[in-house]
Amino acid sequence: MSAARDVLETLPLLAGDLGNPALRERASLAALKAGLAFSNTKTALAHSISYEMTIHHGIPHGIACSFTLPMVLDLARGRDAVLARVFPCALHDADRFLARFLEGLGVRTEFASYGVGDDESRRMIEHALNGARTDCAMQHEGWPRLFAKCECRNRSGAGCCCPFALLKLRK
Fold first, then answer.
1. 8 Å CB contact between 83 and 90
2. What local confidence, expressed as pLDDT, does residue 132 receive?
3. Residues lower than pLDDT 50 in the chain
4. What pTM value is reported for the model?
5. Cα–Cα distance between 74 and 116 in angstroms, integer?
6. Virtual CA dihedral for 79, 81, 84, 86, nearest 10 degrees?
7. Closest CA to 71 of 114, 35, 16, 121
8. End-to-end distance of the chain based on CA atoms, in angstroms?
9. How crowded is residue 141: how many other Cβ atoms within 10 Å of its Cβ?
10. In which element (H, E) is residue 11 found?
11. What is the pLDDT of residue 147?
């Protein structure tokens, strides 16, 4: 949580003053903490998608990792109370806040902005959902429908505990 807050605070300042060693250090520490967090939790849907975006579309890794974060956040909203403490706005507005934040840094937040169509983006997301880097690495038939049954290790008891299994792609 502190990594996310640090990034939200530091990155815009650093973008305006790239030579500032104190801001670079703060951004580096935030990136390290974030990397440790998702490395240990395996909840890196956005990171899994980034591999294909970098390899097949030449998108720089950092951009490829970040542009889907508003979508991922939208999926996680309401499933993680910690998220409410990260953003300087109400949680129901956090995905829009994050999209504006990224776009303000020059990062487009839609697949189409990178030349990726609906079919390819669905395939990438499906592949990422079933990959080793996501916590809910299971096979769901009929993807991307709302899944009635989950075999995730972290079952909450009420439906699927993985917010990404509820993915509904916008048309």
1. no
2. 55
3. 134-171
4. 0.71
5. 20
6. -100
7. 121
8. 31
9. 7
10. helix 2-15
11. 33
